[in-house]
Write a structure and sequence with these properties.
Elements (H helix, E strand, L loop, with lengths): L3 H9 L6 H12 L4 E2 H11 L5 H13 L3 E4 L7 E4 L6 E6 L5 E5 L1 H14 L9 E4 L2 H5 L9
Parallel strand pairs: 4-6
Antiparallel strand pairs: 1-3, 2-3, 4-5
Helix pairs in contact: 2-3, 2-4
Bound molecules: zinc ion (3 copies).
């Protein structure tokens, strides 16, 4: 089940709260990392075995159109879905180690895009990109370098 905040966002997007939307939004909301369609199918099956794979994809599509869910496409890896805190345009910082995703608001990339406009004399109207790397938690967990000889 999704929280009231998420349910309100579904309603405000002009959609009804169906059991499928409620279940899938709830799973994504509780997930600490973006979830693949297969993981979502497995998790949904535990909540409601009636919800099949096609329904999972259809529901994801409607939650994406509603601006609640976004997709992370990592080259060479499975597409993953996450519940975003806002329907407003933003970017993501994706940790390669643990898969955690942090939101990067547009103001975080605005100065970069302004420089692209200046240096390339190119008027930017839209940019989509995610940033990959290592999150602070994972960086902090790096093992100490081996004892020096
Ligand atoms: Zn997001
Ligand atoms: Zn990490
Ligand atoms: Zn942007």
């Amino acid at each position: 089940m999704a929280s009231n905040t998420v349910r309100e966002r579904i309603l405000r997007s002009g959609r009804r709260i169906t059991p499928q939307r409620d279940a899938i939004a709830g799973i994504l909301e509780r997930a600490e990392q973006p979830v693949s369609a297969q993981e979502l199918c497995d998790a949904v099956g535990e909540v409601d075995p009636q919800i099949g794979r096609a329904t999972v994809f259809r529901t994801l599509q409607s939650l994406m159109e509603a601006g609640l869910v976004q997709r992370i496409t990592i080259p060479g890896a499975e597409t993953r879905y996450l519940l975003c805190s806002t329907a407003e345009h933003h970017h993501h910082l994706v940790c390669r180690e643990c898969g955690a995703v942090e939101e990067l608001p547009e103001r975080g990339v605005a100065s970069f895009l302004a420089r692209v406009e200046r240096e390339h004399r190119f008027l930017v109207d839209h940019a989509t990109f995610d940033v990959y790397g290592t999150c602070a938690r994972c960086a902090g967990r790096e093992p100490e370098p081996a004892a020096r000889p």
